[in-house]
């Protein structure tokens, strides 16, 4: 529209309307040329040009208003069609302000929101998830998310659409300066799709393996005439349980079963925390010890074969953790259920002999052995390393013990070796030195730990092809995967006990020096709290072997006496302990001016168990920018599964964890919350 208010064409339409005038100019030029060639033909041509010019003039000036009216009418009808199509669009569609206020919505959007929809209200009032925090930040950016509203699932697309100059063109609505954009929203009902996907997922099959952990021990504990009845009752319990889950079960061997269940019922098994574990333990026909099960379940999105492979990994992990539990492995990770009770130690030493022979064969094939325990080594890891060092020495192999920091509890033992001329100066090496020593003929033996991140030098594990692991802690999701020999016995009192047994089978002519026997004996003594926790027949047999080898019990007790500062620090920790939920006791040791507060914290946790009605003790100590948790129990609470929840692990009665901070109060609250969640979830019983 020009200054006088008249309407003019523009763009391609204007050019199209001007073409008759342009053609008139061309015809006049042609007429002049013909006139110069032939005057009579020029006069005739002039008549036609004049007629054409008059017609073009009439079309351009007199029919222009009619054409304009037709165009306006078409635009009006076209806009009406657009408006109808948008309003009647089958997909709910709405236009929002940047703060989530609803400007406009089509009929489908109004139908989805319901009769409570009012203009000029915020979308978050109806669907709280759709607030300004999830709106797109960049122009033409699309945010897609799923929400549930009124029992239906929707896929929602939010898009930021710029409308520059809107306020100048729109006389009714003015947008704030710098915010000339709308947020468009459309919702796609995916309820039926989600239900179909869920039904497909529920129909997928989960493979599983069930083992009777202590088959031989249970059979031997019952009269011969009742043995078949006991096995029949166990079979019946397993078959009934799987049948309730609409699955199938096949007995592979006398103590092994293969099961298949649908994914839907697999989740039901998770919900009841695998009640079959407790049901089988209740079977009693005169057997002195209860039967326990290990369950391994595997689920893969790809193939059923992969599900079975996952199940095999899960059952191996369940057995390595001591049995009496269910382990689930899928693409997302590993979950644990059960494992709340201490497993009975097996009196047979067949496994120890087999592992000792295998360890000897691996060592013979190598020229050098590197031995390492866990970070901030204790008496058990140090004593076990000394035992393996003796094995390597007896096989005439060059050996080194990797240790980076000598804690206050290890210094007396460490100094005895350093001051003894019988041992080489390079008996102990740091991580950096160990990395320089590695070659193709090197073997690494890991003791008292099975988690790569907390070994003294994790890099060593990836640099050698032969790795052996000896540990008494239950395995977690992080394991040393490239180990050619894995000897993990969760029911053993300590790794030193296991090493003492290996020493008796690996060679007939091994003779421990008294200093070595003292060191291994110290590891057993500390881990069993002076032979009061987790001791079995084999524990005392190992101690007897060490005593025969020259272990001086009195000398070992003197080594581990506390100095006055440590004793006062331990008393201070005990003095500020608090009772939680009437059966847990929690204490902290911040700011104690002692060399190794973590050792004192562990000792304090052991002392706190002497308080009546206390089922588990937790001591948190700050050290080197971290908070270390020492967890102890006697027999009723599995502190290992509690520590696993906060990233730690250990044994049923002795466990630990670390917090990567120095917020003692906050970490105590986190520990309390974990305890509360596990009690409510049925993972621990008080």
TrEMBL record:
Give the species this sequence originates from: Sellimonas catena
Cofactor remark: For phosphodiesterase activity, probably binds 2 Mn(2+) per subunit.
Q: Which residues cross the membrane?
A: 21-37, 43-62
Q: What is its EC number?
A: 3.1.4.-
Q: Which residues form the DHHA1 domain?
A: 602-680
- What is the name attached to this protein's record? Cyclic-di-AMP phosphodiesterase
GO terms of molecular function: hydrolase activity; metal ion binding; nucleic acid binding
Which residues does UniProt call coiled coil? none
Q: Which residues form the DDH domain?
A: 368-524
Question: What's this chain's function?
Answer: Has phosphodiesterase (PDE) activity against cyclic-di-AMP (c-di-AMP).
């Amino acid at each position: 529209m020009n200054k006088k208010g008249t309407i003019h064409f523009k763009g391609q339409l204007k050019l199209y309307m001007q073409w008759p005038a342009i053609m008139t100019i061309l015809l006049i030029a042609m007429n002049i040329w013909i006139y110069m060639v032939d005057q009579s033909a020029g006069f005739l041509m002039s008549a036609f040009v004049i007629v054409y010019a008059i017609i073009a003039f009439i079309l351009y000036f007199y029919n222009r208003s009619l054409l304009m009216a037709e165009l306006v009418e078409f635009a009006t009808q076209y806009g009406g069609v657009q408006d109808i199509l948008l309003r009647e669009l089958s997909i709910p569609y709405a236009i929002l302000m940047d703060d989530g206020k609803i400007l406009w919505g089509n009929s489908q959007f109004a139908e989805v929101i319901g009769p409570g929809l009012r203009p000029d209200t915020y979308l978050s009032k109806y669907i709280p998830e759709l607030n300004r925090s999830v709106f797109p930040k960049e122009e033409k950016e699309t945010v897609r998310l799923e929400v549930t509203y009124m029992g239906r699932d929707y896929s929602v697309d939010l898009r930021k659409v710029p409308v520059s100059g809107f306020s100048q063109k729109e006389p009714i609505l003015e947008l704030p300066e710098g915010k000339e954009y709308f947020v468009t929203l459309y919702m796609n009902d995916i309820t039926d799709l989600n239900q179909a996907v869920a039904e497909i997922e529920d129909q997928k099959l989960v493979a599983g393996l069930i083992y009777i952990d202590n088959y031989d021990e249970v059979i031997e504990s019952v009269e011969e005439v009742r043995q078949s009845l006991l096995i029949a009752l166990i079979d019946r319990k397993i078959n009934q349980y799987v049948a309730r889950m609409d699955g199938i079960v096949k007995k592979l061997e006398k103590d092994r079963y293969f099961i298949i269940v649908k994914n839907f019922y697999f989740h039901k098994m998770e919900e009841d925390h695998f009640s079959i574990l407790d049901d089988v333990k209740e079977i009693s026909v005169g057997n002195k010890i209860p039967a326990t099960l290990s369950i391994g379940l595997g689920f893969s999105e790809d193939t059923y074969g992969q599900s079975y492979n996952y199940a095999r990994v899960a059952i191996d992990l369940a057995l390595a953790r001591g049995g009496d539990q269910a382990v689930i492995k899928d693409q997302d990770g590993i979950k644990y259920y059960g494992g709340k009770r201490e497993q009975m130690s097996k009196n047979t030493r067949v496994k120890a002999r087999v592992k000792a022979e295998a360890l000897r064969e691996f060592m013979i094939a190598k020229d050098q052995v590197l031995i390492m325990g866990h970070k901030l080594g204790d008496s058990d890891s140090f004593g076990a390393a000394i035992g393996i060092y003796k094995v390597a020495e007896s096989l005439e192999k060059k050996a080194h013990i990797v240790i980076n920091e000598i804690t206050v509890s290890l210094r007396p033992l460490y100094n005895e070796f350093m001051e003894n001329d019988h041992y080489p100066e390079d008996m102990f090496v740091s991580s950096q030195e160990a990395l320089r020593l590695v070659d193709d003929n090197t073997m690494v033996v890991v003791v008292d730990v099975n988690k790569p991140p907390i070994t003294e030098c994790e890099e060593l594990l990836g640099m050698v092809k032969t790795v052996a692991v000896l540990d008494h802690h239950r395995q977690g999701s992080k394991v040393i995967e490239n180990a050619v020999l894995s000897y993990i016995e969760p029911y053993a009192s300590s790794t030193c006990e296991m090493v003492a047994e290996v020493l008796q089978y690996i060679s007939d002519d091994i003779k421990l020096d008294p200093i070595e026997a003292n060191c291994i004996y110290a590891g057993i003594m500390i881990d069993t709290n002076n032979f009061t926790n987790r001791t079995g027949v084999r524990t005392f047999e190992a101690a007897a072997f060490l005593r025969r080898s020259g272990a001086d019990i009195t000398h070992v007790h003197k080594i581990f006496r506390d100095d006055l500062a440590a004793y006062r620090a331990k008393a201070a920790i005990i003095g500020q302990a608090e009772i939680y939920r009437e059966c847990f006791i929690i204490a902290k040791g911040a700011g104690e001016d002692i060399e190794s507060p973590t050792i004192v914290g562990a000792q304090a946790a052991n002392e706190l168990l002497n308080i009546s009605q206390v089922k588990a003790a937790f001591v948190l100590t700050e050290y080197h920018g971290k908070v270390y948790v020492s967890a102890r129990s006697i027999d009723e609470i599995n502190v290992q599964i509690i520590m696993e929840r906060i990233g730690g692990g250990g044994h049923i009665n002795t466990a630990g964890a670390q917090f990567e901070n120095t917020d003692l109060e906050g970490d105590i609250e986190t520990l309390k919350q974990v305890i509360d969640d596990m009690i409510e979830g049925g993972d621990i019983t008080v």
